[in-house]
Amino acid sequence: MIQITEQQKQQYQQEGYFILESVIPEHFLELLRGECSTFIGQMDARMEQENKDVIGLNHRNKRYFVSNCFRQQPKLREFLFSDLMAEVCRAALGDTAYLFWEQYVVKGAEEGMKFSWHQDSGYVGYPEHKPYLTCWCALDDMSEENGTVYVMPYSHIGIRSWVKHIREEESNDLVGYFGPEKGVPAIVPAGSIVAFTSVNFHCSGTNSTKNMRRAYLAQYSAEPLLSSDGSRLWGNAEPVLKDGKSAVGEPPPVIS
């Protein structure tokens, strides 16, 4: 069991993030890395089949965002619903948590694309939801050279609520911040978790190294997130915690 300090919990509330270095056990790293290559290969095959180099945020050989992989590969649930991730949820969200989303975020070797300043809540597209938790899990040693994530402390720009984003045509990125602040780069070893709220601005640089830069995002919410009209779930809502205790295996809530 990891120890998340009161100082780290306060930093999450006051600045929008905290960093846990080298907390993911080796067997989970091996699992996440192994499945990563499978899903990137599937996206490459889809691009080949559709004769496209760009599908959404995916750019062939440059950048990949492959989501909801756990539905296809149930082994990923071992990590997503682990005691480790439950403890991070408790620290950031409190006694109730649901798995909301997950995805691999990978930058290709030597020509890996940047990702613009944004809030994850910007991709939800409307402000009427509680901020959720993103756990950015480093599968490789991270550096500025290979395109690590940069987080923006609330105190640097004074923004801690949802902001409308603008789509960048060439990349398909949604962009919500255009100012001069550079944020804090997560220079962390493989197995680290950068935990930040969905209204924390973050970005990532290019990868100029000879190796791919791999990260896995596990995202959790304090309540089920619904579509803007309230008629359906936005993403997933599989229970992780209820009243501070494990709720793994309980059925998702019914949306009527």
What is shown here, in short?
By secondary structure, the chain is of the alpha+beta class. The protein is built from six helices and 16 strands.
Overview of this structure, please?
This protein has 256 residues and is of the alpha+beta class. The protein has a single domain, classed as Sandwich (Jelly Rolls), CATH 2.60.120. Helices cover 23% and strands 26% of the residues. It is built from 6 helices and 16 strands. The strands form 4 sheets. Strands 1, 4, 5, 7, 12, 14, 15 and 16 form an 8-stranded antiparallel β-sheet that branches. It starts with 5 loop residues before the first helix and ends in a 10-residue tail after the last strand.
CATH architecture: Sandwich
Q: What's the name of the CATH homologous superfamily?
A: q2cbj1_9rhob like domain
Outline type: globular
Mean pLDDT metric: 95
Return the domain count.
Answer: 1
| Helical content class | 10-25%
The CATH topology is: Jelly Rolls
- Uncertain segments of ≥5 residues (pLDDT<50)? none
Distance between the termini: 38 Å
**CATH level 1 class label:** Mainly Beta
How many strand segments?
Answer: 16
**What does the largest sheet look like?**
8 strands, antiparallel
Sheet-strand content, in percent, reads 25-35%
* Element-by-element helix/strand order: HEHEEEHHEEHEEHEEEEEEEE
Structural class: alpha+beta
How many helices? The count is 6
- Multimerization status: single chain
Query: Rg from C-alpha positions?
Result: 17 Å
